[in-house]
Structure formats: C-alpha cells, structure tokens
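ARCHIVE CARD
Drawer: 12
Card no.: 0347
Subject: one protein chain, sequence and derived structure
Cross-reference: see card 0346
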Amino acid sequence: MKVSFLGSYRDNFPGDGKKHVVFVGRSNVGKSSLINMIVGSKIAKVSKEPGRTRSVNFFLIDDVYLVDLPGYGFAKVSKGEREEWRRIIVNYFETCRRDIKLVFLLIDGVVGPTDLDMQAIEWIEGFQIPYILVLTKTDRASQREIAQTVKKLREKTQADFIITSSKEGKGKREVMSYILA
C-alpha cells in the first residue's frame, strides 16, 4: 500500500473522480494521529496544540483520497479564523459531496460526545453521506468511560462505530477495511 501527500486546499479541491474518505472531528481529537496509524507512516502532521490543521489535507492511498479536515470546537485561534475553517469545511462538503464515499467522525473516547459532535452527526446526516463513528484515544479511557460513550452515541444514532487507539494500533484493520471496501 502506497500513500502520498497530495496537498492542502482551502478551495479548488481535487475533482478527478477518485473517492474521498473524510476524517472530521473536534480539534485535538486525533485525526492526524489516526491517519498516520492506519497508513503506517507519519505522513500527517501531528501537534499537541489544537487547531493546527487549517486547511483540507489530501492524501492518496491506492486510488482513494484520505481527507483530513480542520477540527471544530476548541482551538486557540480568533473567531474569524474559526469562521474561516467553518466556511472551508462547508465548501468542501458542498463541492465534493458526490465524491465522498464515507466520513469517519472521530469522538474522543475519554471526553465522549460533545454537543458539537452531536451537531456534526446531524449535519452529516443532513448531507445523506454514510458515516462511521470512530472512538479515539481509548488507551486513555477506562472500559467504563468507553461503555458510557457508546451508550450515549447509541441513544442518538444507529451509526456503526470503531474503537481505536493510535498509540496501540487498535482499530487499524477495521478502519482500513472501510477505506478499501
């Protein structure tokens, strides 16, 4: 499996007919770490500081784009910058909707679903795009915290979910099976 970084975009997204698999979630939920874990390479930049992904990053794996979107929620940036990220994300979904094969919506396994995560679920459902919930950072969560998170999500959605840990490599096979399906 070969993976390469195609580029960062704020508009004029690649539209060459390849399918997109999108990674979306709160700032600092672990999108870049998850991408690195599943491809087995440090291709996506990882930062401890929320809000470092400021454009739409495209990676090519086989014949599918992995798309890393800016995070929503907490980040130490201006209101104007957050609004610009929102505009970029909305523009991406509106422009590339037909190419999006699947969205992985990442939820912090310790924090659980936030109000913003629940809004993101409703928003993605409104676009009628298939999505999978991905619980991240589960190596830091107790079994009880994970069970509570799953219970909260089950009350709100019937979406499938994958439990992952980028640190332990947990969930890699499951995520890859959706990407390559």
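Annotation on reverse: The helical segments are 31-39, 79-96, 115-127, 143-156, 172-180. The radius of gyration is 15 Å.
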